[in-house]
Amino acid sequence: MRFKFVKSNRSTFPMKKMCQVLKVSMSGFYAWCNRPVSQRKRQNKLLRKRITAIYNEHKGMIGSPMLTSELRDESLFQNISQARVARHMCALGLRCKYAKKFVPTTDSSHSEPVAPNLLDRNFTTPTPNTAWVTDITYIKVGRKWHYLTVFIDLYSRIIVGWDLSDSLERHSVIHALKKAVARRKPTSGLLIHSDRGVQYASKDFRSYLKKHGYIQSMSRKGNCWDNAVAESFFHTIKNQLIRHAKFKTKHEAELALFNYIEAYYNRRRRHSSNGWLSPVEYEYRNEQYDLVA
Fold first, then answer.
1. Cα(274)–Cα(65) distance, rounded to whole angstroms?
2. Which one of 7, 42, 82, 106 has the minimum C-beta count within 10 Å?
3. Measuring CA to CA, how many Å separate 21 from each of 5, 30, 189, 213?
C-alpha cells in the first residue's frame, strides 16, 4: 500500500521525502515498480475486459449466472466460478438491469368466447411443438404505434413466429401464427396459450386453430403471470432494443427486430430454463435442430 501511495503521488510530492515519511527505501520502491505483473493479475485484467464486453453486448440485461456460462465457453475461463465473476462485476459497478413491472397491452373487454386456462402456468414441456405462448406489444414507428406479435415454443423458449403490424386487428396475429406453423410444422394437439385479447378470441383465429387441430388456452382475467414467458420476452426486448431505438419506417423496425429475434435472441441469448443455453443451441444439443430452420 505504501509503494502504491508513492507511485500515485510522485508527481505531487518529492519521492525521497515520501519514502522517508513512509519508512520505505527508494531501492525497494524501484524493485517493486520493476516487479513483473503476476499471472493472476494479468488474467484478472483480461477477465474484467471480457466481462465488460459481454455485459455491453447484452445491453446490461445479464447477471453473473448467465455471464459465467458465457465465459465458460472460452478456453481461458472454462473453470471460472460464478462467485469470482460476481465479485468482478461488483468491482466494475455492473448490475443486471431488471425489467419493469408488467403492463397490460391488449383489450380483453369483448363479447367473444374465452377459452379455459389449460396451460395453468406449466411453462416446461418435454418436447418441441407441445405448447406455444403468444402475446402482443407496441412499438413506436415514426409518429405511429405498431404492434409486435410473437409465438414462443415453451420447449426451448425459441421465437417460432412473429409479425409487425400498424393495426391491432386479428390479421397480424394470424399471420404470425401462419409463419410459425410453416417454420415448425406442428401436428394437431398443439396447445396455444394467450391472454384474453380480442385478437385471440376472434372467430377467424379460433377457426384457424380448429382447422389444424390446435387447442386454445387463455390466461385468467387480469392475471399477466399466467403468460409470464411471453411477458418476460417483451420486457427483455424493450430494455435491450425498443427503448433505445427510434424507427422511422416499418422496414427499419422489421430489420432491427429480425436481427434481435433471429440473430441474437434465438441463437445467442442464454436461458436458465435451458441450462444456460440459447434456444437454438438447446434444440441442437437435444437433437431437435431440424425443427429450428
1. 13
2. 42
3. 12, 17, 82, 85
24-29 LR contacts (CB < 8 Å, sep 24+): 28/3, 29/3
Cα Rg of the chain, angstroms: 26
- Grid cell in block for residue 169: 386487428
Helices (H), 123-226: 170-184, 198-201, 203-212
Helix axes 15-22, 26-33, angle to 10 degrees: 110
The rounded distance, in Å, linking the Cα atoms of 133 and 210 is 17
Give the separation between CA 70 and CA 276, rounded to whole angstroms.
8
Burial (CB count <10 Å: 0-12, 13-18, 19+), residue 267: middle
Identify the band that residue 118 occupies on the pLDDT scale cut at 50, 70 and 90.
Answer: very high
